[in-house]
């Protein structure tokens, strides 16, 4: 029997998979940081999803570091290591798992490297043109698709208000599709529930007032509100606005995105400009690559209805 593990850098995605598949699946569904003390070649096939989220070093509380790079720990643990990478979807400072970095480290360790391009994405209904247009519009990369022409498989709409945005998503969910409202990290995130057990409503756009999804450390919330790691899977998650860290790894049929004020397009210069003073993301706002990281965050959400907060 082949010993195969699946590893990610996402707590929400991994814990949701474990919940769906049962507690015994925890031995097969792991994190990138799970392999610091692994025996060499202990895993026959190690699949690493969203490997662009690999960190420089594995840091686990109360555990001794191997002193190696995290990617070295992974290559050390697996006989065959498969890295799924999107070089344009690192969204936090310290995520260094680029194709070139992983390739260089693998070759340095004497590994034989095979590289393949996946030409379409499931979340885009297989439309490479849609991905190209999003990336081109955000100036992430130059592509041949400079304009979007509506296709049957997609709905892309810019909404007049966040109320209209949420209503459109709720209607799609009632029709049997999956959907959530998400936003850039442009509002504070209260970690203590209100006295009545409800999540504090931090996301405020005019008279649109909603809570973020629960944080993993949120205290005092009532029963029925999904924990942070289950927000994307639990039906009650539609009542909160999600952040990219909670949504990352999941697929929704429809994503409603509140486009915050940390990234704006300047028509005079033809460039996207970053405003870290409008960001509440401590992992990103101090980065010298702030604009690129915020662009990557927005590009992560596909099949979008958008409201621009201006």
From TrEMBL:
Pfam families hit by this protein: SLFN-g3_helicase (PF09848)
Domain Schlafen group 3-like DNA/RNA helicase, residue spans: 4-288
Superkingdom to which the source organism belongs: Bacteria
The protein, known as: Schlafen group 3-like DNA/RNA helicase domain-containing protein
